[in-house]
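Note to self: keep these together.
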Amino acid sequence: MTKEPKDYGKSVKAKLLNLSKTERISYQLLLIRYVHERLLYRLAQSKYKNSFYLKGGALLYAHEQLKARPTLDIDFLGSNINNDRKIIEKAFSEICTISCKEDGIIFDTGIIETEDINENRVYKGIRLHIMARLDTVHQKIAMDIGFGDIITPEPQKLEYPLLLDGLPAVNIMAYSLETVVAEKFQAMIELSESNSRLKDFYDLYNLLHNNTLDSDLLEKAIHSTLKNRGTVYEENHPLFSDDFPKNPRFQALWKGFIKKIGKTEPAFATAVGLIKEELFSYWEKYKKQ
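Structure:
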């Protein structure tokens, strides 16, 4: 009978290294994704399971897995909890104290750094930094927690994918894909030609290209998000103009972004074209709201 390894950290580190070679993915990126996964496991086991709903790049990874673009932080919507920094810090200290010896991860709850973000929004958000250890490797991760947004129709149950077999399952609450689309679209409308968030164009293109979304639910999510964030309808919005994807600034930013994430496509005009094709009608309907 084979004995289980006593040094889980060393064993997991070796397995991640083998996986990085097999999948030809950066070990550093796999380590960050693994720490995210094991943080989410602890969240799922805690009393805060319904206080932090997963969104952002880590959620897209759950749907696309190793094909997803690299992401270094993990994003949540805070709900049923005060957005006071001390309260959020205490919550994550309790979450990260939960043990799971099989995954080899130990979080340093003695030092959790926090700062306010989104201070121009009605409800400010919180950014946290916490250090995780796997054997002799230390990895700091960042978490951004927003407040005041709404999920349509409601938070969804999600079984988060495991990088390694044999570990406890991760069952959390998360955004619907329709709400992910709605928030990214609203940001594009709000930022317009000053936008520098090229990842939103990339994510939105992939969401629309690779998924079959419920059109009625998507319309409700978009209109609810636009209204909740105080977005006013604008006739002839620049996002939908023929000149928008030709903007030299966007072209340069897109070229740099695509190279940074190790991709070669789509072209910026292709991404914007699909966004316009799929979402323009929802924008036009919004003027009647």
